[in-house]
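Continued from yesterday's entry.
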Amino acid sequence: MEDYTDIGATTPEALEISRKSRRLISELIGDDRPEDRIRQRCVIATGDPSVAGLLRFKGDPIQAGLAALERGAPIFVDINMVFAGVLKKGHNSPVETFLGRGDDLARQQGITRTSAGVLAMQERLDGSIVVIGNAPSALLSLCDLMDAGSALPGLVVGVPVGFVNAAESKQRLREMDVPSISTEGTRGGTPIAVAAINEIINAHARSRK
């Protein structure tokens, strides 16, 4: 862990805190595989070691994410809190939010604004990275598009939180033929979504040095 560098830590004190956190968490959950780095970061983001056991990885999502970042694929997120947390440096991918992109459609069809944003931007989703931390409806709409062959992202980080369709939307994502990172059950949210994608961004930035 001594050589670990977090591009989000911009001062010596911040970097030392990051490295100390990594050392502590790696002793709890291990540091043997690339997925462990994502587990570590999600545990640090939530302060909850049990989160490590909830994460699910399908279709080599880390390599899929690195490949998407290498080609500068866009990163689409569900809400502004996730947008604010995603690192904007260490890569050349634009970061955009679904929120506010399909408001007319939301009013016309009576669906959520995030779901409408997914539908409104479907033509840009192929090969992209999609990060959903809060809106099960957005993830379900994305799965509908993938089922219909209308969109195929390069990576989906799908960890919406809540008691209405959150667990179901993530289970459906795991049944899709797309690289994904998700959580079991009702738990998830912005901290986990941001932690997962930012760890992939960190890995990408380190690989380019």
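--- second protein ---
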Amino acid sequence: MKTTAIYFSPTGTSKRGCVAIAGALQAGAEEIDVTIGKEAHKREFTKEDVVVFGAPVYGGRVFKGLKERLKEIKGQKTPCVITVTYGNRDYDDALLELADIAIAQGFLPIAGAALIGEHTFGRIQVGRPNEKDITEDIAFAQKILAKLQAKNITSLQLPGNRPYVHGEEGMRHVGFIPSTDENCTNCGLCAQECPEGAIDRGDYSKIDEIKCISCFRCIRICPVHAKKMDTEAYKNFAEDFTKKLENPRENQFFL
């Protein structure tokens, strides 16, 4: 059995749970990061393989460009684990949607997990996933492994609605566009690492408001902290959002 973790993870949060589960299924599991670049990653998997998919939740759905990134990743009734990461609000239809994408590509979901992670906005579930979360992920992986070893390769029911609650596009553009201050050294890292190519490669302070998905990857990776999200409108939203989602939720596992 060969295990592969495939994830879209702009700030690394969704990657952690996905990789933890894959690594517990097989030490040294392969990783395929589909975060950067819209080009499809071509791979084919067999019934003898296991794939763990990971992605963050955007307004109850998965990232709009994920299907395109996975279109050349094919399975042959390949067992897979579906994971989505969210920060207290809800994952709504995202887990089911990612499972549907995987099924359309020839995979067979045998387990799923809605994992808690630090929200991009405000101060919600700060530091998650933490050590306890990773321990839970590993324990879940052991149960998946037992299911695989027992050859109990059956599909499962995951929570969610069809049609998806937020429609075909769902909540995709939230309008929080990072600014750039005078500390910028024009290193170009933000433009190179932007999942949607929204940052102008001639002027790194210019961000396409339509392409930007407000993932704040550029803020997290800027080596001189030149990218910021400090408008009054955002600060007020983040404060209210933090209060609204102050009640903690925990990881949910489906097997």
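The mean pLDDT is 92. The two ends are 19 Å apart (CA to CA). Will compare against the first tomorrow.
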